[in-house]
Amino acid sequence: MESWVAMLVTPGLGDTWLGAQGDMWDAQKDMTAALAGALVCLGLTAILHRVFEKGERVKSPIEPAPR
Predict the structure, then answer these.
(1) Pairwise CA distance, residues 16 & 7, whole Å
(2) Hey, how many other C-beta atoms are within 10 angstroms of the C-beta on 26?
(3) pTM of the complete model
(4) First and final CA of the chain: distance in angstroms?
(5) Average pLDDT of adjacent 10-residue blocks, the chain of 67 residues
(6) Which of 16, 22, 32, 59 has a CA that sits 20 to 30 A from residue 10's CA?
(7) How far apart are the C-alpha atoms of 6 and 21, rounded to whole Å?
(8) What percent of the chain shows pLDDT beyond 70?
């Protein structure tokens, strides 16, 4: 959507107005870096949760079916 507005406002200077710095894949690279950072944080959170888990388990409100 930003690129459409940039083309309407300044037809010849759309990339400059968006701050793409001459790279037409700038936004995709930014989103890929954000996804990679989120996945790293998710992995670190899972590892730290397992390391520092105190062995307390939340009991399920659903009872297992009798056998």
Answers:
(1) 11
(2) 14
(3) 0.54
(4) 58
(5) 70 65 80 96 92 70 70
(6) 32
(7) 14
(8) 60
In the prediction, which pLDDT does 51 show?
84
Q: Residues 6 or more apart from 20 whose CB is under 8 A from it? A: 26, 27
- Judge contact between 15 and 24, C-beta under 8 A: yes
The full DSSP string for 18-30 is HT-TT-TTHHHHH
Q: How many CA atoms lie within 13 A of 46 on its CB side?
A: 6
Residue linked to tokens 């890929």? 32
Q: DSSP E strands: which ranges in the chain?
A: none
Between CA 50 and CA 37 the distance in angstroms is 20
Q: Are 17 and 7 in contact (CB under 8 A)?
A: no
Instruction: Quote the radius of gyration of the chain (alpha carbons, Å).
Output: 24
